[in-house]
Amino acid sequence: MCVSMKIKKTVCPFVLLFFTLFTTFAGQSDLKKNELKESSSQTLRLKQDINFRYSFHNDSIHRLNFRYPDGKKGIKPWIAPTLLISGGTALHFMDGARKNVRDFMRENFAYHGQIDDYAQYAPLAAVYALNALGIDGKNNFGNRTALVVKSFLLNGLITDRLKYWVNEKRPNGGIHSFPSGHTSKAFTLAHFMHKEYGELSPWYSVGAYACATTVGIMRVAKNAHWVSDVFMGAGIGILSTELVYLTHQYKWDNEHLKRFDIFPFQFGNQKGVTLVYNF
């Protein structure tokens, strides 16, 4: 009997200790299972949220892929703007050469007309005229319009900033000569026409660049710009359009165009139209 009591006294604490440890481990196991389930649930919700955001991102915000849609690569598109910008920069510091060109143009090709003010937009008018006649370019109306608007804005931003930063005097005594705004716009639109119709026929490109070059020559002959201004403006114009074509996402299809609404408005004595895009 004594032996039995001793065994019970010895075993009971071990049983109690074992039961306590088992309960503790079981509780921890259940807790870990719950934490694992919660973690899995959070991971699933995170994946769903990421998928939703990715889908929304693709549908509305359009990622920048920095590649042409036809997969073309290489440095060829960047050669002309690089040479023109480099040449314009070099000529800007060659005061003697600039003055020699100015004097030659004034003596032989002096010009005082206004044709250059309108000729700079000729390639733009030609692109939409060709499209109206049924000669389709590379892109549809929506993408084409988005491309030319972005090219025009980028070119204007670069050109205007440089004009104020450099603050070069014009040959006729005016201000903000470098680079030539007329020339940069003309080459922005000429390169736009080249990108849209150049593959259809090289003569479209020849005509566009000839028009832009004529505008640049007129600006020098008019004594409104130095030759360096024209070179720099031509390079910036081509570069602006090329950069926009490189980064454009080509998603302005007919479905996107249908989301635009135009409403007339009147605010006091002001009247106009409002353009609204429905997401």
UniProtKB/TrEMBL annotation:
For this UniProt record, the keywords arranged alphabetically read as follows: Signal
Q: Which Gene3D superfamilies match?
A: Phosphatidic acid phosphatase type 2/haloperoxidase
Q: What is this protein called?
A: PAP2 family protein
Q: Which domain of life is it from?
A: Bacteria
Which organism's genome codes for this protein? Mariniphaga sediminis
Q: Which ranges carry the Phosphatidic acid phosphatase type 2/haloperoxidase domain?
A: 145-245
* Signal sequence segment: 1-26
- Keyword Signal recorded: yes
Q: Cite the CDD domains for this sequence.
A: PAP2_like_5
